[in-house]
Amino acid sequence: MKLKNLFILGAACVLVTICSCTSPAAKQYEAPELAEYFKDTTAVPKTGGVKMVTINTPKGKFKVWTKTFGNSPTMKLLLLNGGPGATHEYFECMESFLPAKGIELIYYDQLGCGNSDNPKDTAMWDLPRYVEEVEQVRQALHLDKDNFYLLGHSWGGILATEYALKYQQHLKGLIISNMMISCPAYGKYANEVLAKQFDPKVLARIREIEAKKDFANPEYMQLLIPNFYEKHIVRMPQAQWPEPISRAMGKLNESLYVTMQGPSEFGISGKLTNWDRTKEIAKLTVPTLSIGAQYDTMDPKHMEWIAKQVENGSYLYCENGSHMAMYDDQKTYMRGLGKFITGINNGQKKIEL
What we know:
Layout: H1 34-37, E1 50-57, E2 60-69, E3 76-80, E4 104-109, H2 127-140, E5 148-153, H3 155-167, E6 173-177, H4 183-194, H5 200-211, H6 218-233, H7 243-249, H8 254-260, E7 288-293, H9 302-309, E8 313-318, H10 325-328, H11 330-345
Parallel strand pairs: 3-4, 3-5, 5-6, 6-7, 7-8
Antiparallel strand pairs: 1-2, 2-4
Helix pairs in contact: 2-3, 5-6
């Protein structure tokens, strides 16, 4: 199977967490009744939580796929996949952890991804348009400041950040997972730090292939998989990657990926090349969790910095993880994510993780 870098960006972590104060009167988390959590409140006929949401775009109306897992009146987590161009499917690992805490999961394939419509029009692959798409999904699913948590991973972190800067009044909590908020800084780190970790001969050959724009050359991925993917994307042999990752990667929309990210695995050359919200991030007042990992594809200090810049920031450090820390440092990732969401639900603004 031909692989592309499913997840363009990521944030690595630092060795310090953001400690924060908690309210003495904070309520204690209580697990929901099983029957109540799985209560299906949707209209008939039942669809197992699947809802196709109609979105309006400059090119007409399209449908995007969503699926709700569980039922929580106060903790609804909408998931924004990476790529750009991947699918919701690699988030399925969350079913093994978050429902036990009463957190409702909402899977969502962005336009051009997975089960959603694909207009096959590169003009549609545009960050501001995707922000408005998320807002239309929010409205259709009746998410609001009393229940709406938004998690964006990798490219989804860019989308989540951009959405929050415009619509944070609708959010209860924001999670930026494995994502820097500056693409120029991402490119610099890839070239000045990650590239230098390669064997010089391997790096020289990768650079040679990229200079010729010979990205279809099988040797390109043969070099990247053991030297990059297995060290910084998922820290295990590619043949042992969990099935949801491989399934999502196998459905990657290459047109969307290349348009936004560009074909190279080092830095960005697509529409996102100059995206940078380092000056604006301080405007966020919504409780925000940034998640990074030691072996991620980006600067280990950047995710901690994000948590310090926002008004109510918390930081989760995955010591053994990489870009897909929800798999290769799973216990740390899921424990911290669950603690953040339930803590905010109990009235806290910052969470010590």
